[in-house]
Amino acid sequence: MSDAYAKAGVDQSAADAAVAGLVAALGAIKLDRPSAQVPLPGHYASVIRIDERTGIALSTDGVGTKLAIAEELGRYDTIGIDCVAMNVNDVICVGAEPLAMLDYIAIEKADPAVCAEIGVGLARGAELAGVEIPGGELAQLGKMVRGVDVSGACFGTVALDAIVDGSAVEPGDAVIGLPSTGLHSNGYTLARSALVGIALDDERLGRPLGDILLEPTAIYVKPVVELLRSPVDVRGLAHITSGGTDNLLRLAAKVAYAIDDPLPVPNIFGLIQERGEVPAAEMREVFNMGCGFCVVVPDADEAAALELLRRHYPAAKRIGRAVAGEPQILS
């Protein structure tokens, strides 16, 4: 990771080391039974076997510093959509169908109006994803948190013989990109640092900047589940978050990905790059750059997959192909 993100306050190398420490400690858990985990190292969601045929897919995530924009604008009604999206979009990456989510709201002091607005977004996100939210937790943490933080955990089911981990991807397979709605819920620390000095009601991009920054994360559940239920051979699914199309490398296949025809980049990314003097390579490391989700299918299924996906996302297109070589992104 380059310097701009670290200067803005996010040290990704330190975060990676912290995660490694957590994983090492959790890997030492001793049970009086065999592990029920399905090995999916580095993938988007975890899967636990519940019987010989079925697994539960699990994911947890939050909204991050996008909440700082909501707080500044005093608008919290879309943040719940982001919370749902960041969780369900990970669960579908293993081929699972999300069923339910739990939310966790950490707040300095309970504010009924703020929580009601967050609830509106959670309900809308649940409807878009086709999941229930049967419960959650509201924690008043006083001085431990300033403002509010919103996160959640999602649960889904998947047939063990239908798990999509990317291991079936082969050279020649098509990589189809689905457009993002903007920043989604990643890179806001860098975005806010780069855009400091621009008022949130500034309309140089055609809409108030605050509206653009609060645009909810796209929820890809319904088109992806529809694709999984179709005759199309879905070989890989990647939620494009922080790390950009490098997230394709979380798939299990030992292939490279040539991204030679990327989706259009929304203007907000250009403004961030210009104002923050962020190198192009770092922009691709931090942001989705207009592509929020990728689907990998055989060349023979590309047309059928695009026909289905374009019913939901008319701008969906093949952005590249899997190619022989060591795992890397070629662009």
Task: Describe the 3D structure.
- A hairpin with a 4-residue loop joins β1 and β2.
- This protein has 11 helices and 11 strands.
- The protein folds into 2 domains: 34-162, PurM-like, N-terminal domain (60s Ribosomal Protein L30, Chain: A), CATH 3.30.1330; 174-330, Phosphoribosyl-aminoimidazole Synthetase, Chain A, domain 2.
- The strands form 2 sheets. A 6-stranded mixed beta sheet has the order 7-9-6-10-8-11, with helices on one face.
- With 331 residues, it is of the alpha+beta class.
- α4 runs parallel beside α5 (112-129) and α6 (188-194) crosses α9 (267-276).
- Helices cover 32% and strands 23% of the residues.
